[in-house]
Amino acid sequence: MTVLNIAMVGSDDLAKAVAKATDQRDVHTYVNKDSGVNGVRILSIIRPAKMPERIRPFFNSLCAAKVGLIEIDSIDAAFGEVLVGFASAGIEKGIFVINPPDGEWIDESKVREFMSQAGLSQWIQSDFDGVSLRTRLYDLMEEISHELESLKNDPLVVTIDQYFNVKGIGLVAIGYVQSGSISVHDEICVMPANVSGSVKSLQVMDDNVSIAVAGDRVGIAVRNVREESLSGSSMIVHPPVEDKSKGIFSPICVDSHNKSEVTVTKSPFQKRDLAVGDIVHASVDLQFVVGRVDSIDSGVVVSWDTPLFIRRVNPPAVLIAQLDSKPRIIGHAKLSRLD
After folding, report:
1. Segments forming the whole domain that contains residue 315
2. 163: which of 129, 152, 230, 234 fits an S-S bond (Cβ 3.0–4.6 Å)?
């Protein structure tokens, strides 16, 4: 089973034309299953609610997605911010649908110009047609199939956004397998609490499974983990491996950053430079962490209010934003930990 997670900014009507609604929280999710020649294929649309009023759900959708879908009903500041978000998250492939309100018109050439300026020139246009959109999204899945498969071989990172106790089962954590794979009976470590436990059972798409892999939205019944060890931005990873007799040591797969040197790649639409004392927000792997710029002398140095966890292998882009500025999204960054 292959899953393509799609970050979408647009209407509920467009999302329902492509897939079936499954959940409504800070992000609304929609799923379409298809039996392809190589097995079951799944489109999973992640649509942030209340965008542009609330930007964190948008960031969360970008963290989980590999392609994008935008419905364009006007060319305005909100449209520009959405483009910047997708580009800063490195989502180079996607689909846009131009759908102005009745009686209004949108210049297609202007849309393409702005998308090209933002770095989204590879995105393709589609009509408001669910069948056509599904076909194009499955085509994009095929185009990035190598990337989707290679993520399954990386170290395990599961980002958690829900957790609760279930009668007869115990504590269940729900989130996205960002990389690697997780199996029943695996030993796990919950970060940032740094608590050890194990996997009692797994569910993907309401089915009990023995293994979940990168791309899956998974429910993990955990053993020997207390509810207070989890939060809305926890991670589940495999514990470090040490065999002194063989001289083997494999550290935990994420680095904890309390202070970082931040190398920022600014959006083409962002003119402001960071200054000492600025408050910034970093978003990566469903984390949303506040930081303050300490210095800019030999690089931008940021201290974080709470630890920020960055993957050691193939770290994704870190989105950097200032919520009190316009535009809010500065761009993306590479972080180097400072002890």
Report:
1. 254-337
2. 230
Residue 226 shares a structural domain with residue 181: yes
CA distance 63 to 58: 9
As given in the structure block, the two tokens for residue 141 are 């899945």
Cα three-residue angle 25-321-108, rounded to 5 degrees = 80
Q: What is residue 185's three-state secondary structure?
A: coil
222 and 132 together in one domain: no
Q: Are 83 and 42 in contact (CB under 8 A)?
A: no
- Digits of tens for pLDDT over the chain (339 positions)? 899 999 999 999 999 999 999 988 889 999 999 887 778 899 999 999 888 899 999 999 999 999 999 999 999 999 999 999 999 999 999 999 999 999 899 999 999 999 999 999 999 999 999 999 999 999 999 999 999 999 999 999 999 999 999 998 999 999 999 999 999 999 999 999 999 999 999 999 889 999 999 999 999 999 999 999 998 889 999 999 876 676 667 789 999 999 999 999 999 989 889 999 999 999 999 999 999 999 999 889 999 999 999 999 999 999 999 998 888 999 999 999 997
Is the same domain home to 245 and 259?
A: no
Nearest to 85 by CA among 280, 319, 289: 319
121 and 185 share one domain: no
Number of structural domains the chain divides into: 3
31 and 146 in a single domain? The answer is yes
Check whether residue 292 and residue 280 sit in a common domain. yes
